Amino acid sequence: MPWDLRRYWVGWHPGDKPKPKKSISEGTFEVGVDIEAGKYKGNCPNGGYWARYADDSGNDIIANDLTEGSSTMQFTARKGEFVSVSRCTFTKVN
Fold first, then answer.
1. What is the mean pLDDT of the chain?
2. Please, are residues 14 and 61 in contact by the beta-carbon 8 Å criterion?
3. d(C-alpha 92, C-alpha 94), whole Å
4. Measuring CA to CA, how many Å separate 69 from each of 32, 46, 90?
5. Half-sphere exposure at residue 57, Cβ-oriented, CA atoms within 13 angstroms
6. Where are the beta strands (DSSP E) in the chain?
């Protein structure tokens, strides 16, 4: 959005940053920036996958889990880590 138009965008203020999410699905997220740190639980009706990474390279896996079929999965995300989620929706529980 061009800078001139931002002043007309209702609810936007200079310096505003998006708040971290408490619910996530498909994608890779930085903990503390994109999502809040804490425990997440997901109900995966058709199977799913999650992974926690030490950095954004995707090479340094701290922990992960994969399920085929209906399952409940959970993980604890710590600030500075990256979390990748596929075929599931996870919601923060604490």
1. 86
2. no
3. 6
4. 30, 5, 16
5. 6
6. 23-24, 27-30, 38-44, 48-53, 61-67, 71-77, 82-86, 90-92
From the number of C-beta atoms within 10 Å of its C-beta (0-12, 13-18, 19+), residue 75 rates as buried
16 CB-near residues (< 8 Å, 6+ apart): none
Q: Which two tokens stand for residue 31?
A: 């903990």
**What's the pLDDT tens digit per position in 46-91?**
999 999 999 988 889 999 999 998 888 999 999 999 999 999 999 9
Q: What pairs with residue 62 in β-bridges?
A: none
pTM for this structure? 0.77
Neighbours of 52 (CB within 10 A): 19
Query: Which residue in 5, 53, 64, 8 sits closest to 31, CA to CA?
Result: 53
Residue that has been written with the tokens 């990256």 in this structure: 82
